[in-house]
Amino acid sequence: EGLIGPKMNALAQARLAENRIQLAREYVERHPSSVGAWLGLATIADNEGDLDVQNEALERATEVDPNRADAWFRLAILRDKQEDYSDALAIYERLTELESESPAFLNNRAYAILQTNGDPEEAVGFAQRARDIMGPNPHVLHTLGLAQLRAGSLDEAQQNLGMALEMRPGDPTLLLDYGEALIALGNGEAGRSHIVLALRYADQLGLDFPRRPEAVAALEREATA
Asked: What are the residue ranges of helices labelled H in 14-102?
């Protein structure tokens, strides 16, 4: 196992190899009980943009060693990318069983709860635990503030989303959620201006903004309010 990971990493970095996935798969077939081999195949598949092979490799890695948190975490990130939020939530539940004090796993479990329209109070609890462990962090503060917003704790939501926005002032998603918090607190003009900024920054900086339809809908809703 000790040499398998470095060998797979070397193959992943071998840019001249045109059949890296096939070479990696042949190597994995010789070492099917190696988590490192499956993770290496997943890395190469990710580099090649082959989601099917990446998914297969990460699933096999978690089967070989169900207690490997790094394999589960990579699988959860892939599920997020595929917008399979229910499966991602199940994986984050598993991860917090493996490492109950990991702020990253606690935070991501909280966010996955929100993505699946779960109990916002439950999400607040996990996000608060992550903040207590990690301290002020923009990603954790964002999750905590969004959970509080959905739970109806508007003042706390504004405070935490505002702190996160100070740390990441050009983040379109943060601008959207902070704007929504302001609107919920009755400050519609300031809320709308933040949502407009979210769309503007996403356009000007060429950022991926999956929640664009939500931002547009919020502006349309406020225009008719």
From this structure: 20-30, 35-48, 51-64, 69-81, 85-98
| Per-residue CA distances from 216 to 147, 156, 182, 189 (Å) | 21, 25, 16, 15
| Terminal Cα distance for the chain, rounded | 62
In this structure, what token pair is assigned to residue 116? 């699946």
pTM: 0.87
Place of tokens 């010789």: 30
**Among candidates 178, 170, 154, 177, which has minimal Cα distance to 202?**
170
The one-letter code for the residue type at 121 is: E
Q: Is the dihedral of CA 10, 72, 47, 20 positive or negative?
A: positive
Neighbour count for residue 75 (Cβ, 10 Å): 23
- Tokens encoding 133: 């462990």
Evaluate if residue 130 carries a pLDDT over 80: yes
